[in-house]
Structures are given as structure tokens and as C-alpha cells.
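A student in our group prepared the protein record below, which I am reviewing. I have pasted the whole thing underneath without changing anything:
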Amino acid sequence: MNTEKRVLFGVDDSEFSRQAITTVGSLLQGNENYKISVFYGAPDPNIPFLSKTLRLGPRDVEELERICNLEEWKVLEQIRESLAAVGFGADRVETICEAKCNDPADHMIKLAAVEGFETLALGRRGPARAERKLMGSVAYKLAHLADERAFWMIDPRVSSRDVLVALVGASIGRRVMEHAVRHFAHLTDSRFTFFHVIPPLPPQYWDDARILDAEEREERKNTIDQWMSGYVQRVEAVANEGRERLVEAGIPENNILVKVQVQDRGIARDIITEFERGYYGILVMGRKGFKKISQFRLGSKATKLLHAVHALAICLVN
């Protein structure tokens, strides 16, 4: 719990982006081990084109370049001030400006690989969002391509610090739990819920294409009960481990819940229902439940949730 944690947060020059990073700063400011690296991929002003079009002289071009540079760093300075206003000190903030950046998502992924950032973060949408009303193009690209890092997509309208930990998929369940504990256990006034939706029975437990006699029905029932019991026990073991670690970190035990339910409307829809019904503000889940499906970098459940839920910080664990 004492190791340094670093988040690479991508911003633009919009008010929405400033609000998003301020939201993250307010969530993390209580953990002194956190540092935020602010990345601004400044768009290319295409000065040669402007100078030719406006018939600018050499001194005018120099002045235009100076103004553009000032504007780029002004964006980062405003963000520093916004973070300081919510208690996230300047000594914990690093600023990175990439001039003439035509692909911020690509730059962030490469920078994360070089500098060892474990978490990438971004506001839910950017200034140009005609094609994607729900998610900006950079956020969309990072969600799908940053599959070796955790990815946080932030909607600045977060009104709750309560955490819903969706344990979807056996192989990734423990990593999701560990991410929630590692990054949010300092929120000692928050409510944490470990939530799992039991999927439908696997095909091997379906009824045969014939009528079973009484003995066969009883045998099948016992087999299904054993599978269900074992499944629930594995999930509860992960959740209970998370409970113990949160209690050790200072979360009151009565603020921690474990919920396991049979699928109702579908796993993604059931998570959405729980999220809305419980008034959570942070959702932690896996990118995908089955790592063997390697051709899909983002699972169907994560995709649905990214587009369907609002007013939250959603954390996708790799």
C-alpha cells in the first residue's frame, strides 16, 4: 500500500477535460503516494500554411509561434491550478506537452510503455465529438488499444465516491479486486460492493434431448448444485480477500458488501442496474472475461458499460 502510484492523464484545452482531471485529483488527493502526469497533445497549428495564407513576415511568424507555445503551456498551468484547488499539490503533478500532436492516444500508449505508467486516464469526451456523442475519439481509441494498461474513463459529473467492483470472469476477478484495493482503499468513507453475476449454465449441464427418469434428474440436479456451489465459492473467496484487505486499509467492515446473483437480464445489464440502484460513482471491472478471445481487445460487457453508464469513473483492468 506504500508504493508510488502513477497515472498518465491525457487532457485537451476544453473545460470538460479540466473538470475530468480535477475530479480524479479530488478522488486521489487523500493518498500521498499518488502522482499525476498530465499529458497535453497540442494540435498542429500548421504555421507554414497560416503564414502563407496571411502573408506573414519572418517576425510575424516568430510571434505566432511564441503565442502558440504560450497557449500550450497555459493549458497545463490552468490544470495545475485546478488540481491544487482540490488539494492535489504541485509537487505531485508532472506536465508533459507534445507539440504538433496528431494522435494523442498513440503518444500516450508509447509514453506509458517507455515510462512504465500502469494506468492511463482520460475524460469521457473531447472537444470534437460529432461522431461519438458518448465517448470522444481519443477515449474510444485508448479503451480499445491500451490493453496492457489499466484505463480510467472519467465523467466529471461523478457525485458519489462509492465503489462497485464487478467481478466478471474467473481469471481476471482477482486482478480487478486488487486494482480496487490498491487505488481506492484510501477512500475510508466510501462504500465498497463486490458484485458478481452468475452466468447461465454451461452447455454440458443442459438437459439432453430426451426425457430423464427420476434417478437421472436427481443426478443432474446434484451435479448442477455442485457446479453452482463451487462457482460461488471461488467468487466469494476473491471478494472476501478483498474485504479483508480493505478492512486492513481502514475501511469500516459494515461499508463492505459482497453480492452474488444469478443472471437476470444479462450480465452487463445487471451490472448497470446495480450501479444505478446503488448510486455508485466508481466502477472497477475487467476489460474482458476470457483472455483466450485474443482478437477482441475489449470485451462485450466492458463495451456496453462504457457506452451505457454515465456520471462515474469507470476503471478497466487489463
Residues 157-318 form a domain with the Rossmann fold fold (CATH 3.40.50.620). The beta strands are 5-11, 34-41, 93-98, 119-123, 150-154, 163-166, 192-198, 256-262, 282-286, 313-317.
